[in-house]
Write a structure and sequence with these properties.
By secondary structure, the protein is mainly α. It has one domain. The chain is built from 6 helices and no strands.
Length: 185
Amino acid sequence: MFIIGADRLMRLKLMNNIDNKHTKPNYSFLAKLLHWCFIFLFAFGLYKQVDDINQLEDISFFRTEIVFASVFLLFLTFRFLYMTKTQKTSLPTNTPKSQKLVAKIVHFSMYISLAGIAFTGLMIGYFFSLGLKDGFLIELTIGTHEFLVSVIYWLISIHVIAAIYHRLKNDGVWDSMVPFWKETK
């Protein structure tokens, strides 16, 4: 009886230890590469953004914008499919369900906002190519585009704050995606 009880106690301690330590489902090299390349792609998009819709009069600039937005959407779609089909969350198993839900909502909202930014950018280009340089339709599309840019700034801020929170919590989430400022074990 004592041996069975001790064995059960040992398993419970081991399970409790696993739940409170790093779960270490590290993201793959490709997942990390996609994450960090996407940051640079997004930053480049911000750097080269259209300041005035009349810049689209330049056909070379216009084509570059269309190609960039299309590549951005393709890259985003590939990343979304890859991450959802092949990767698991790096949140520890003892993370509250509410926190897991918020993390999922923020991540999906980021994908939706980024896709919306690229899509509305393409729609602005399409309407402009039809000669719609002002009016309700293009103004609505530009307004939606600008709104989504504001939303993504907030979502990225929440994402970064959450990452720093996990880095300070030292629960393995930071190390699963970030190659610097490693957590102490």
